[in-house]
Design brief:
The chain is built from five helices and 26 strands. A six-stranded antiparallel barrel has the order 3-4-5-17-16-6. It has a five-stranded mixed beta sheet with strand order 9-18-15-11-13, with no helix packed on it. The protein has a four-stranded antiparallel beta sheet with strand order 8-10-14-12, with no helix packed on it. Helix 1 runs antiparallel to helix 3. It is elongated and about 70 Å long.
Length: about 475
Amino acid sequence: MFAAFSVRRRRRRPARLLAAVVTSGLVAGGLMAGASAAAADEAPQHQGGATATLNGLTTFDQAVLRLDGEKQEIPAGLFEMTVDGGGTLKTYCVDLHNPTQDKARYLETSWDQTSLGGNRDAGRIRWILQHSYPQVDDLVGLAEDAGTGPLTAATAAAGTQVAIWRYSDNAQVQALDPAAEKLADWLEKEAGNAPEPRASLSLEPSAVSGPAGTRIGPVTVRTDAGRVTVTPPADAAASGIRITDKNGKPVTSAADGSRLYFDVPAKAADGSAALTVQATTSVPVGRAFAGVTKSQTQILAGSSESTVSATATATWATAGAIPALSARKNCAEGGVDVTATNRGTAPFSFELMGLTYAVQAGESRTVTIPVAEDQAYDFTITGPGGFRKTFKGILDCRTTGSTAVAMTGQQGAQPSPLSAGGTSSGPGAADDGPDLAETGASGATPMIAGIALTMVVLGGAALFLLRKKKDPGADND
C-alpha cells in the first residue's frame, strides 16, 4: 500500500469538477463503402515511447509544504517505474497536489499534453534533472558544487524534488534536512533553460489511409535508438500486406527518419492493419509520464536500457471514403483533438452529439472536443461494415497549486520525520544500468497513497470547436 499525504484547507472552496467517463456517441456513417470489420482500439491513445507501472517512492527524505498558513510534512524524492517489456525508470513528481494511484499505469508523453506545456519554467525543471541526482551520482562533488555539506542519496533526491516543485507547482516547500534545503536553493537559483527532449520512439503520423493497390504512407520513425525492429501486421502473410520503403522493398528494421509504407495488394478486401516498431534504449531525461488513470504527472530523472514501442495503423478501400483517425490531448484548448483524414474518393461523414460533419476527399479535419480538467473520456467513432475506433484517457493539464482542495482517501503510515542532519529513511535502488545511480541507503519503502476519485455524470450538450487543418499531403508513390 502507498503511504499518503493530503493537502487540506480550513477555508471552504468550491470543489473541482470531477466529471464522469464520457461516452460521446461519436458515430461515423454514410460514405465509407464496403469497409471491413476492424477491431476497436481500446487502449488509451499513445504517441509512442515507454509504457510503465509505478512501483512507488523509493529514495526519499522529508519536506515541509506551506499552504494557506498551514504546514504539512510530506515525503519528497524519487519514484521508480517498471517498463513493459523490460527496464526501470526513475522519476520525480511535477504535480504535487494530486495523489498517485497504487500500481498506476503511465505513458511517455510530450510536455504539451501535461501541465508542463503551459509552464514557462519547464525548461528549468529539465536543467535541474540534468545537473542533480541521479544524473549526477557523485554526491561528494554535488555537495561541493552546491555548498551543502554531506549529502546522502535520500537527501539529494529530496532537495532535487523540492527544487522541481518550486517550478512545477509554484509551491512554498522546503526540505527538512539542512543539506537538502541548501541543494534545493542552489538548484533553484542556478537553473537554466533546457529544451524539451523528443520522444524515445514515435511514428508520425499514427494513422494513414489510402486506396488498395498502393503503398500507403509514409509513416516516419522518430527515435534516439540506433535501430528499431519493424513488426508487420499480424495477418500479413495471409493478406499479402507488406511493410516497405517508398520503392517497395520490404523493411524489417529502421532508424530515425526512416519512412515506412503499408504495401496493400490491389485485391485486398477493404480493411485496416497496424505495424509496430520497437527498440531498447534509454528514455531521454526530462520526458513527461502521464497516468492512464488519474495519478500525479511524473518527469523522467533516469532510465536503464528500456523497451519502447510505437504503433501506426492504415485503412484502405477500393472506393468511397477512406478515413484515418487519430486523437491527441489539447491542453491549450482544454480538450481532445480528434483528427480525421480522408484519402478516398468520396466525403467521410461522422456525427458528434447529434451534429454531422463531413471530411471531403483528400482533406483533413480536426474536431476539438471540450473535456473538463480531471475528466475521463471515452470517444468512439463507428461506421458501416464494422468500422470502429475508440479513444480514451483522462485530461490532466493543470496543477492545482495554491487552490488545491482537500484530498480524501484512506491513508497509511507516513515515513518518519527526520531530524536535522539525520540519516536517510529511503531504501537503496538497484543498479539499473545507464543513468541510474546506486543509492546505498536502506529501510522501508513507503509510497504515496492511491485515492479513488468518484466521477459524476456530465450532462448537457457540449460546444464543439471545429477547425480545419492543412492537409498533410500523404505520399502514396
